[in-house]
Specification:
Largest sheet: 8 strands, mixed
Structural class: alpha+beta
Strand content: 15-25%
Shape: elongated
Radius of gyration: 28 Å
Distance between the termini: 53 Å
Strand order of the largest sheet: 1-11-12-13-16-10-9-4
Oligomer: single chain
Number of strands: 18
Length: about 425
Amino acid sequence: MHDIRAIRENPKAYDRGWASRGLAPQTAEILALDAALRQGQTALQAAQSRRNEASKLIGQAKARKDEAAAAALMAEVEGLKGVIAEASAAETDGEAGLHALLAPLPNLPAPDVPEGADENDNVEIRRWGEPAVLAAPMDHVELGGRLGLMDFEAAARMSGARFVVLKGELARLERALGQFMLDLQAREHGYLEVSPPLLVRDETAFGTGQLPKFAEDLFRTTDGRWLIPTAEVSLTNLVREQITPEEALPLRLTALTPCFRSEAGASGKDTRGMIRQHQFQKVELVSITAPEQSEEEHERMTACAEAVLKRLELPFRTMLLCAGDMGFSARKTYDLEVWMPSQGTYREISSCSNCGDFQARRMDARCKAAGEKGTRFVHTLNGSGLAVGRTLVAVLENYQDENGRIAVPQALRSYMPGVTHIGGDG
């Protein structure tokens, strides 16, 4: 959500920021509605003030037995009641209209975010690891099928497209990946493990920016709740409508949860395999910081996500997203892209975003320094640490041999005692 006072002070900066994200100028309509709202509020306050003044004068007129003056004042007060009621209703409508204009507008890019329209304009920051050279790499669907442990047909019979059934050692490998990631972030990187709700209310999904713009990308229950598309929603909303002491910041939170996405905007994209599914597991990272901490925390969070890929020895690159490719709530985003041998390219496996105070304004999440009277909106950050399904795909493809046997990464062997390979003799 955006600060209307900041828009009043520098409308050109907002139009420039939204233009970099592919939007037409917005501030003229916003400021016109804001001006009308403020004018109406001024009139309402004047009517309320006159009503209060006239009410006092009625008593004075009666005290001096001036019934004519008292009657005139009473008639004026009665008339003002109608004026105030109409003005109050207009104020409510104006506030709702202004909210409706601002709610679907994305965050503004940070000054160091590159210009650009889509993923082709993203900027590579660094690479790690050397991609394996495989003569004829199989993709994860073929590998899983050969192992007899990845079943898309059974999943489709019970649930439809974009689901999978994992069995045996692949199910165990998926579980090992999730536990390894969660342990790394909680034990070594200082994130507090949380087991949050998977169902949330409208205002919760609004707080992190999923509503109203992306309702079609979510699953809704019959009682009006939403299945979370990421644990970011639950974790970030832990501070909604709260004032957090600044000495307690940053808060670092992590969770391993199922995630649910309708993928309504991804029709025909990544239909093969596990890359884009309706249900998947992910380890999420969320940080709540004071405003001046968020840039440094963003770099730290990205490094925490990168550490997972380094421990798994999976080659990857880190990309700074351009303005046109960032998510709705982000002001700056790094994507981690892991090497996929079957495609001969890097594919996104994590996004780490600094949202500034954008989500905090939607949640009314504030912080307060000791000894200070005033409060400030916190800054919120989120990142994948990592998407478990996509990491499983990357492990299968990068650790395959020419016979389709999968080596278990060294970092996971303590989670799978006695198993060094999947397939063959194990």
